[in-house]
Amino acid sequence: MKFVLKPWHLLAGIVAGYANRELQQIIDYLRAENAILRETLGQRRIRLNDDQRRRLAEKGKNLGRRLLAGVASLCTPDTILRWHRLLIARKWDYSQRRHQKVGRPPIPPEVRQLVVRLAQENPRWGHDRIQGALANVGHVVSDRTVANILKSHGIEPAPQRKSRSTWATFLKAHWQVLAAIDFTTIEVWTGKGLVTYYLLFVMELATRRVHGAGITPNPDEIWMKQVARNLTAADDGFLAGQRYILMDRDSKFSAAFRQVLSNAGTEPVRLPPQSPNLNAHLERFWRSLKEECTDRMIFFGEAMLRSAIREFTLHYHGERNHQGLENRLIEAAEEVGSSVGEIQCRERLGGLFHYYYRQAA
Asked: DSSP letters of 7-74?
């Protein structure tokens, strides 16, 4: 069959050639523009985000390696094709849809912390005992798991674990039947000049209540034995019901004084030498007494001292919040916590102490 070239064929060829020439000019311009941009950036690497890589990969796959080699300027054809392969692989990646992981599930951190806590607070508990305690609170694990957790934290099994009672453990075990006693001194001006007075206080450690056992410039053995009898009186003795009383090795706490306490059923516990931290609660009371009261006054006579101590003791029990008791009062009155009524202020020792409360309507 003989092919006949018609006029419209010639016109179509001319249009197509012009379009190709225009397209080639556009491509040449864009390549020159890209080259100029790269020269401006210098050696700095052009960082593309995932969306930009995806767009180049989709366009580059359609062109193929040969055409990409002629037009690609931001990266090599191999790079664009590699991005395309990664897009395909990501499409068929269903790892995020897996609901079940292979292997045994890990032990939750809170269970691990609880195992360590039980072992530290109960040094005589073995693996089975700890396992049972965990089951009581809803954590079901094996005794082997307990052993592995303790081993990873460097905690030995129960027979080798430290089991000796500490001083803190002793205090907590006897908290409700434990008291403390100690002296402090105050300088008082008298007709004979500056005289040292000894203040003897006793504290219930569980409640922080204190009791002024006596004030004297001469705490001899006769005076101390009478103090012991007063403290242990069956009807109103401050130490009635207290099983132990902590005291330092001050010579004023003589054998005769300790014997009176023992006969009444309160066992003296003498602290090691130079260990004020073992009687920390009463030591903290002395600090409060001195910083808030006695260091801010000059005492002229015993009566003035006794009055100041009495006022501070009332303030300490019923008007002073204690951080060691969660910022509560030792002996809270009925108006404490009320939100009704006018706010009043009670002063002691000429305004040295203030207590704010609401007056009942």
From this structure: HHHHHHHHHHHHHHHHHHHHHHHHHHHHHHHHHHHTTPPPP--HHHHHHHHHHHHHHHHHHHHHH--S
Cα separation of 55 and 9, whole Å?
37
Q: Would you state the structure tokens that stand for residue 311, as one six-digit string? A: 């006022």
198 has which bridge partners? 185, 216
Q: How far apart are CA 200 and CA 217, in angstroms?
A: 11
Dist. CA 62–CA 149, nearest whole Å: 57
Best-predicted range by mean pLDDT (64-73, 144-153, 193-202) = 193-202
Stretch among 102-106, 131-135, 175-179, 227-231 having the lowest mean pLDDT: 102-106
Percent of the chain, pLDDT > 70?
69
Coil, helix or strand for 216? Answer: strand
Tell me, rounded to whole angstroms, the distance of Cα 327 from its chain centroid.
Answer: 18
> Terminus-to-terminus CA distance in the chain, angstroms?
122
CA dihedral for 260, 262, 268, 273, sign (positive or negative): positive
Greater pLDDT, 321 or 23: 321
- 30's CB contacts (< 8 A; 6+ apart) are none
Q: DSSP letters along 85-132, please?
A: HHHHHHHT--GGG--S-SSPPPPPHHHHHHHHHHHHH-TT--HHHHHH
pLDDT recorded at residue 11: 60
Is 71:63 a contact under the CB 8 Å cutoff?
A: yes
Q: Biggest alpha carbon distance in the chain? A: 150
Mean pLDDT of the chain: 81
**pLDDT beyond 80 at 325:** yes
CATH 3.30.420.10 matches 173-355: yes
User: What's this model's pTM, rounded to 2 decimal places?
Assistant: 0.56
The pLDDT value given to residue 129:
82
What is the per-residue DSSP string for 246-293?
EE---TTS-HHHHHHHHHTT-EEEEPPTT-GGGGHHHHHHHHHHHHHT
| Predicted local confidence at residue 257, as pLDDT | 96
- How many Å apart are CA 65 and CA 67, to the nearest integer? 6
pLDDT at 312: 96
